Every structure is written in structure tokens, then in C-alpha cells.
Amino acid sequence: MSTPHKDEVTGVETTGHEWDDIRELNNPLPKWWVYTFYATIVWSVAYFIFMPSWPVFWNGEWTALEGVLGYSQRGAVTEELAAIDEGRAEYMQSIAATDISKIQANPELMELAVAGGKALFGDNCAPCHGSGAQGFKGYPNLNDDNWIWGGTLEAIQTTITHGIRWELDDDTRFNMMPRFLTDGILNREEVSNVTDYVMAISGQGEMTAGAEAGAEIFGQQCVACHGETGAGNQELGAPNLTDAIWLYGGNRSDIYESIAKARAGVMPAWGGRLSDAEIKELTLYVHTLGGGQ
Amino acid sequence: MASDVLSASPADKLAGLARQAADFDAAHGKDGETITAVNAEQNRPLFASRVKVYPKLVHGTFRRLKWAVMAITLAIYYITPWLRWDRGPNAPDQAVLLDLPARRFYFFFIEIWPQEIYYLTGLLILASLLLFLVTSLAGRVWCGYTCPQTVWTDLFIYVERLFEGERAARIRLDKSPWSLGKLARKTGKHIVWLLIAIATGGAWVFYFADAPALASDLVTLDAPLIAYIFIGLFTGTTYLLGGIAREQVCTYMCPWPRIQGAMFDDDSLLVSYKPDRGEPRGPHKKGTSWDGRGDCIDCGQCVAACPMGIDIRDGMQLECIQCALCIDACNEIMDKVERPRNLIGYDTPANKEARRLGTKEKVRLIRPRTVIYSGLLLLVSAIMINTFATRAQLEVNVLRDRNPLFVKLSDGSIRNGYQVKILNMDHEAADFRVAIEGLPEGVLTVQGRDTQGAQIVPAAADSLESIKMYVILPVDALGRLDDGEADFTFTVENLRTGEMVENDTVFRGPQK
What we know:
The structure holds two protein chains of two kinds. By secondary structure, chain A is mainly alpha-helical. Chain A is built from eleven helices and four strands; from the N terminus they run E-E-H-E-E-H-H-H-H-H-H-H-H-H-H. In chain A, a hairpin with a 2-residue loop joins strand 3 and strand 4. Chain B is built from 16 helices and 14 strands. Chain B has helices at residues 10-28, 61-79, 118-138, 141-146, 148-164, 167-175, 180-206, 211-219, 225-245, 247-253, 256-259, 275-278, 301-305, 325-336, 349-357, 368-389, and strands at 96-99, 104-107, 110-112, 270-273, 344-347, 394-400, 407-408, 414-424, 430-437, 443-446, 455-459, 463-473, 485-494, 500-508. Chain B is elongated and about 110 Å long. Chain A binds chain B through residues 10, 12, 26-31, 34, 130-134, 141, 143-146, 240, 243-245, 288, 290-291, and chain B through 1-8, 45-47, 401-404, 407-412, 415, 417, 447-448, 468, 470, 475.
């Protein structure tokens, strides 16, 4: 195999390998290729010295040589995050220092705040409220003009900061609708009559005899929170029963179930988990979704 | 030099060096006076180091033409970024500017936004058609006269000639051992080459920024790093391609020589040697008869002049860039030996055949392929001019919210959100009136404003204004929705110029 063999046609030595009379010419590598190869060798040696390389067993655990430059990808990420925080520091400080309604009047700050709020919303709120804040059954749609606890900047800020029925926060929004059927306050027929009445005042049904009877019960049991006309009360977090928006569904069986068993959704308090400036950003973002008051 | 760095023994290396010296001698002779085409077909093994080409200076029509073309093209390249063009206070005043950060391309009276990049496609189509047409008429005119590779190589050879002398002197210099004089000549040449290369790279970056400002920043070292990187890159490539690689770029790197065969036909005017007139060739002694022999005296001047290292008398070759310098070289000789000019000249294969058959020679410029290329050129030009002339100063994009698709409001009406993007390509700020058509009951509002119906939106000069808008369809008009949707149109009017554009979109609601 290793006997030198010269190809007659080209005068070039072959590698000595032969397959079915086909031989491979041993043409030299191009110079640029060879020098590039040498350069990569030099490069790799330098890389060993400057960059983290050899795995070593040191002080009882596996680690790696750090390299002269002390580079690590984790360190680089930390630095980049710190740099981002530093870059944002100025406007985060001015957001923290500025009253929320004043931010709204400042287009430049407003643009930054809404952009930041959008990112925070995606990270923290989207799992329940949806990525477009469109909500789901039991999780309010934040795009519409209906607010259970109020849609002003202050009301939204309070809701985000303290949550809804979040018992770890003393200032949380709290109310509790009675479980009229489960707790035996009303019987099935009475609940059914109230359901008919609510269907009627929300424009989904006629004022039948049952609904008339339901109106009487409504006057005794429900007006304290939902009001004489059923228009609700944002102070108490009592939903408007006369409009087209239903957090837990607006058909008869949904309404019946709401009266019979009551509903009590929970939202965590974000104060403490997010900074004040971040809550302001979120508030402004939610307020711009189309329903802010 | 021996190429087999890895495997060669010292003896092999010596043999390789000797072989290379022999190649050089075969091409240029021991005294530098032998003239052989280094790239002639029979001289080329499959694998060989390049033998340097030493083009000789010629004088004549085509050489003068090439000097002129060189002066004009270099002037265009170096001066263009410094030309000014007044576009008013809201736009840069540089005639040709590729403003990448702002995403604008300015070319005299034309301004292109990123979405109009298809204009560039049109220009490239025009350029290719022009290239096809010219090539079918007169061969590789582009390669021979105007290609940057040719122009800069010509310039670099000119500099080489200044420092190292004419062809024979250069060959002798390269063969001579190193001396102080040789070192000085070589150093001088490379310094001037580098200066030209730096100027080339330096001019390039001026197309991408305001030239006077960037120039002062470059000098004070305040320019962005990327400017220095690109100057370095173009300095390197100019020096390498124009000074060192030269004809190899055309032969090995450029795809055009391989495509050109499809562009020529029998009536294309190509730089060619007329063997019917020149053969049999041979030395001619003054005063002897020209009977029974060709006009070619085999002086080799056409080969010595060739920057591609070929012998034009071998016929059409891939390497030939048709620079026509061999025509000048041969005509000088023909004048001396008192024979008619143009033994080498622009000739067509059809005429060569006509002379052989004794029929009449003619140059057919109008042929199907030139007519088709010209027609396409006119067509594409007309389309381009038309689109430029009627180019809008206003464009509107409407992005419908998809998340959520629609929002039900407390009174049961349905609201859709739209991101309306107004591209004010005018150089003046203006107010824009945004309204909707085709949805009579629909109410147009803007987040954060109390106004309903048509909205006035201000937009700065040469900018994009993006505004979130809502359309609310009242509950009693929901019957207008057909299967949950209705088509309607946004209209946007520039209140300053009156220009108006429409953008069709759709309103969605719950499906019944």
C-alpha cells in the first residue's frame, strides 16, 4: 500500500490507495488552506489560555479552568441584565417619581410606560387574562368598558397592587356574595324566580309572573349590593346585572348557578412582587386597552 | 514556490522551486524579452501556480478610450457622495445617500422607503438587460472598459509602471536579486497601492452617511467603528483584487465569463484576430515581399499588451475581457510595417465566415436578440418612469387587532381595534384626516380622545405615524355583519396636499 506510485498522465504521486484500479492523486493542499489550518491551531492554543477550557476536579467538585479573561456566559448574561436595568433606571425612576395621571399627560414617558406595561402583562397577567387581555370565563376581559371594581387609573392601580380576595394582603378588594341555595337562604323556586328577573332586567327575558316574584326577592336580598336597578356598585365590587357583559356567563343556567352557589374569583396582590413603578406601567397599559375610564 | 507544504521533502521543495522558475522562464524568457502568453491553452497544467502577467503599455484609440473611461468612472465613484441636492429642511441634502439607520435611500430627486425596495429590483433588471444588449452587440464591453475590477487593475498597473518601468524592466526587476533599489521601487509601489485602496474604502463609507460630517469625524477619530471596519475591508479587498489577484478575479472568481457564451451570436462584434489575413504568420524582413504570407509578423506585441495573459490569435477564450488593448498594440505594428490596420479588431464570426466564402461582409446591429433586449429595456424603463412619476407621498397600512378579535361592550355593541399606520413620505409635516367608509353606523374613535367620527392626526415630515383606532358598531347595527364580518375602508387624506389613499379592511363580530 505504501509503495510510491506516480500517475503517468499527471506525473503526480498517488496516495497508494487503489479501488478497482482507481487511484487518488496526492495533490498538495492549497496553501491558503494550510495556512488557515496553522492559524486555527494558534487560535486554539490562545483560546485555551484566554477562555474557560479544561474541565478540572478541584476542591471536590467538577469545574473548569477560568481562562485569563475570566469570561463566562452566565456572567455575561448577568452583566447584560444589569446594563439593561441601568439603561432603564432613569425612566423607571421618573415613572416612580411621577404621579400616574401626570405620566398619562407626558407622551414620551407614556410610550415607555405602556411598552413596559405590555411586557409585564405578558409575563405576569396573561396566564389568566389572556395575552390580548381578552379574559376567559371567570377572568375579566380588560378591553371592554365594564369594570367590577372601577376602571379609573386609581382603581386599576389599587386592584393590581392589592389583588382581589387575596387574604395575604390586608387591603385587598374583598366582598362575598352569599350562596343563596347552598346555604339555604332561598329555595330552588325562589332562585329560579330571581334568575328570571335578572334575565328580564338584562334584556334577555320577559317580565313573567316568576320574574315578578323574583323582583320581590331581589328587592330583599340583592339590592344592598347590586342596587335598586341591578346596575351594580363598583365601591362594593358588585357587578352590573343589566348590561351585556357577564364574567361567569350570561345564559340562564350560568346565572342560576351564580345565584345558587355564588362566585368568588381571586387575583393575587402584585404589590411587593412588582415595584411601584412596574405597577404604574401595568396600570397605564391596562388603561389603554380600550376600556379605561 | 512549492505548494506541497505539508508533504514535500526538502528535495521536493527545491524541485518545485526549480519547476516554478522554469515556468517563469518559459513564459517570459531569461532576459524578459521572450513573449509567450502565460495563459495560453497548451501552457496550462491542471494544477499550477500562477505565472505573473506583465502587461505592456500601448498607445492608440482604445487605450485613450480606456483612460477616459477610467477617469470618468473613478470620478463618479469618488465625487458622487460629495454632490449636494436640496430637499428642504426636513431631509438630508446629500444627492446619493443610503441612510441605513433611518431606512431611506436618496438618489437625487428619488427617495425610496424600505417597502419600495422593488425599485431596486427594477434597476437591477434594467442593468442586466443593458448588459445583455451591450454584450450581444459588442461582447464584453462591461468587462473590458467599465468593470471596477478592470478599472482598478488598470490603475494599479499604471502605478506599477511608474515605479518599476515597462514590461521588460519589470520582468528583469522581479528576477533580479534583492537590492536597495528594488526594495525602494517595490515599497513605493505598494505604498501607493495602499493609498489608492484606502481612498477607495474611504469613499465607500461616504455613501452611507453625510460625507462632510463623516470626513471630519474620520479625521478626528470620532467616526463609528463600523466606518473604520468597512474602510479596512475595502482597503484590503481593493489592494488584494486590484493589486495582487488581478486577472485571476476575472478568470476564477467572476461568473460572468462563463455566462457570456450565451450572450454572443455570430453577429456580435468581438475583439478578434483575423487568421484569414494574418496567416501564415512569421517574421518579416523590411523590403521583402508580402506575397504568399500573412500580415502577422509574429512580433508578440498583442500578447505582451494583454492584461489577461492570453494570445488573442488562439481565438475566443474564456479569459478575454475584450479590453481591445491588443488592437492598439497590433495597429502600432501594422503602421510600422506599412500594412492595413485592424489585423486584430472588432470583428464578427459571421464576417469571418463571409470572408472565407468570399461573400459580402456586413455588420448586423438589428437582430432578433438585440431587438428583444431593446424592447424589454424600453418596456422596463417605461414602467419604472411611470411608477416614479406617480409615486405616492402617502401610504396607509391598517393592522386589525386579532387578539382579541373583537370586544363586546356593556351595551352589547361590538368594538374592533385597528393600528393605523400613516406613512407621510412628504417632506412637510401635515395633518391627516382619517375616516371610515362603507360602515355607516360605525363610530370611529381614538384611544385617549373624546372625539367621535373622522379624526385629525398630525404626522411629522418624512415619518411614520402609528395610531390606535377603534370602530364601534352599535348593537342595533349588528345585522350589518354577514356571517360575523363586514368589509369597510379607511380613508386617509393629507389636509395640506389633498392627497388621499384608501385601505380596505374588515370589521368582525360574533358569528351567529
